[in-house]
Amino acid sequence: MGDLVRVGISLPSSLAEAFDAYIEERSYPSRSEAVRDLIRDALIEKQWMGDTEEVVGTVTIVYDHHTRDLTDRLTRLQHDHLDVIISATHVHLDHGNCLEVIVLRGEAARVRSIGHQLAGARGVKHGNLTCTTTGAALP
Ligand code: NI
After folding, report:
1. Can you tell me the mean pLDDT for 9-14?
2. What's the 120 CA to ligand 1 centre distance in angstroms?
3. Domain 54-133: what homologous superfamily?
4. CA 107 – ligand 1 centroid, Å
């Protein structure tokens, strides 16, 4: 962390109480740490809303590998976007179910598009795109 600046904010007491309950639930060591995380979340969300900002995302999918064509379609989609797909981990959960975690890095618009295509592929039981950052532009 660089130089620290103290920022005072005023809140309605009911909002402050709700925020303190949130801090307690999340085990934050201080209000400051919780506020810093919320600010970072807002800045990352802004990066994702742009089209050309460089972002990092992870797609988690669960599917049955017996589902017709699904494994082929998921593999093809990843091979079609080698510049954005930077890693994939496959876990055999049981006889039929597989879990994959795919890491994507690139321009926000492409990462969003490819991430949603993977997570939303027909036959995927559960898919989720988590949006994060390269960290480079985040103080
Ligand atoms: Ni498997």
Report:
1. 94
2. 18
3. ACT-like. Chain A, domain 2 (3.30.70.1150)
4. 29
Separation of alpha carbons 64 and 92, rounded Å: 10
Cα 118 from Cα 102, distance rounded (Å): 9
**Both tokens of residue 134?**
């390269």
Return the pLDDT at 120.
96
Expressed in angstroms and rounded, the spacing between residue 4 Cα and the centre of ligand 1 is 48
Ligand 1 (ion): residues with CB under 5 Å are 92, 98
Nearest to 64 by CA among 25, 93, 29, 89: 93
Question: Nearest CA to 63 among 46, 75, 55?
Answer: 75
Local confidence band at 1 (pLDDT 50, 70, 90 cut-offs): low
